[in-house]
Amino acid sequence: MDVSSPTQDGVGNRSPAPLDTAEHVFEYSGVTSVAADLQELQRRVQRMQGTYLSRTLDSLPGLAGMLRLRTRATYAVDSASLALALLAGPSQAGEWAGIVGAPDLGYEAAAGFGLDLDRTIVVPHPGEHWLSVVAGLVDVATVVLVRPPVAVSDRQAERIKSRLRQKDAALICWGDWPRCEARLSLQSSTWTGLGRGHGHLTGQRVQVELSRGSAPPRTHLLWLPDVELAVSEVLAPVIRLDRAQAG
Fold it and tell me: What's the pTM?
């Protein structure tokens, strides 16, 4: 590469020569991609080394006020919609996800929630080795969703919990999980947009009960999804048509 030499002006001051095209490229291109690569490398090193501290994972905006997943913890849900909504937040932020034992899960719906399928590892039929498959995926994925084929014992739960602590990961169980961090239960569900034999579904309004340890359960109202196909909080009460007409 021909690098120009500094030039002198009329009074003998030396001024730097302008950068050539190659130097401009070297100076400015690829900064964003390099930063992203470094962040990904830091995440991988952290997972390989393990950590003594848990970290809060990204969540969908509509769930942030209700629950944010943390690594080294387990969570239980009783519906596919809740499971996918929890999984989608970390996935959108660039984390790897794993799904074990859910062959009937709708992956088109999963992508609609925001799950990055290019960064998702799916094992639909793990059979009797489902626990070993979960433990293996925890090595490479930050969040793993599992639907156990049988009841989970305390010993099995502790084995996975130890793995989560070592690998800085979180587990979502579609079903029951002993001594989990939190449980989310779908209490009621109402679809909007349909009239009497006509119309289109425009949103699903759900009531979710959140339980943590011995604390009293808390109820949250969510759109799962709303008219924009996003998960969001119900900010205003929905008035039934018969009550509105009654005044």
Answer: 0.73
